Amino acid sequence: MSGKKAGFITGANAKLKIGGNTVAYATDLQYREDVQHIPIYAMGKIDAHAYEPVGYTVSGTFSVIRYTKKAAAHTPAASTDNSANSPALYPDVGNQMDPGKWLSSNTVDIELFERTINDLAAAADTSTSVIKILDCRLTRRGISLTKRGVMSESFQFVGEIIQDSGQAAAHSGKADLT
Question: How many domains does the chain have?
Answer without folding.
Answer: 1
